[in-house]
Specification:
seven-stranded mixed β-sheet; binds biotin
Length: 324
């Protein structure tokens, strides 16, 4: 009920009368009044004027399930939304849901107590300071192509940051988003699979919106969106944008299982391209000029006149994050 009333209020630019809500939803005026009272308690500022009705003046800067459901109404990909005030890690929670048989889902939390980064690092996730979310996916693709979902998520985030802030951000292959030379987003993709089939994939996205604390290692390499733009960022609008962008990319990708359909945009968005990069691999360090990212998501480097494809590894880009 609360969700339906909120949906009516949010879809209305002006006032909507209690009478109209009551007729549209077939509920009593008392039930409406109770739902509005609850919404106010949650932080929605709702004006009520006699003879006019109700009007939402402002919404709280908080991830609220009912509102996210309304905002993502036109997203077909997500079957379930889970929203938490606090959780160990949205990726971990997504995996638990996967084991319980949940299909495509979005898991969002205001705070993570053990947020996880790549390579065993932590992702500090203070309450309300960022977008901390995981997408639980069950794509019918070959397991070796699942890592491309990280690149698509990166492109979705890059597009959305540009849309919301008007600023041009870049992707640092494979999983960072960089704004003004600093990391504002990291992506951690995890998978459970058999040799030839995927059980599930979790794409975890962490965006720095206003956080004051960073992991020691990111201290002088990271920034947050509000600091870079000088404006308040609507986290829910950012989340909505990312999900819709990702859905569009995902739907095309699961047909072809490669990046051909976005490869030009990806290469233009990728900060590694045409730069000297250092790749730390188990086999040792490799230095070369990155020529492009290919349609299979490999980072191509020119080394001794030959183009070599790199599938994974820790990559540094000369001139970025203080690397010289
Ligand atoms: C990285 O750059 O090291 C990846 C960071 C990924 C952080 C996000 S926040 C939401 C999701 N849940 C986690 O525990 N990690 C990812």
């Amino acid at each position: 009920m609360k969700e339906k009333i909120l949906a009516l209020l949010l879809n209305q630019e002006k006032f909507i009368s209690g009478e109209e809500i009551s007729q549209l939803l077939g509920v009593s005026r008392t039930a409406i009044w109770k739902a509005i009272k609850k919404l106010k308690e949650e932080g929605y500022e709702i004006e009520s004027v006699s003879n006019k009705g109700y009007h939402v003046v402002s919404v709280p800067d908080k991830m609220i399930k009912e509102e996210l459901k309304i905002l993502l109404n036109d997203c077909k990909m997500i079957e379930k939304i889970f929203v938490y005030d606090t959780i160990d890690s949205t990726n971990q929670e997504a995996k638990r849901h996967a084991l319980n048989g949940i299909g495509h889902a979005l898991i969002v939390s205001e705070e993570q107590t053990i947020g996880r980064g790549r390579r065993g690092r932590t992702w500090i996730s203070e309450k309300g300071s960022g977008v901390f979310m995981s997408l639980l996916l069950r794509p019918d693709i070959r397991p070796e192509n699942a890592s491309l979902l990280t690149l698509l998520a990166g492109l979705a985030v890059k597009r959305s940051i540009n849309h919301i802030t008007g600023l041009e951000s870049f992707i640092k292959w494979p999983n960072d988003i960089v704004l003004n030379g600093k990391k504002v987003c990291g992506i951690l993709t995890e998978m459970s699979s058999e040799i030839d089939t995927i059980n599930y994939v979790v794409v975890g996205i962490g965006i720095n919106v206003s956080n004051q604390i960073f992991d020691q290692e990111l201290l002088d390499k990271a920034a947050h969106l509000e600091g870079e733009t000088g404006h308040n960022i609507n986290r829910k609008e950012l989340l909505r944008n990312i999900i819709l962008e990702f859905e569009e990319l995902y739907n095309q990708f699961i047909i072809t299982e490669n990046l051909e359909f976005v490869i030009d945009e990806y290469n233009k968005s990728c900060i590694n391209v045409n730069e000297i990069v250092v790749i730390n691999r188990r086999e040792g360090e490799l230095v070369g000029k990155c020529t492009r990212i290919d349609k299979n998501g490999e980072l191509m480097i020119m080394k001794d006149g030959k183009e070599i494809g790199i599938h994974s590894g820790e990559v540094s880009v000369r001139g970025l994050y203080g690397y010289v």
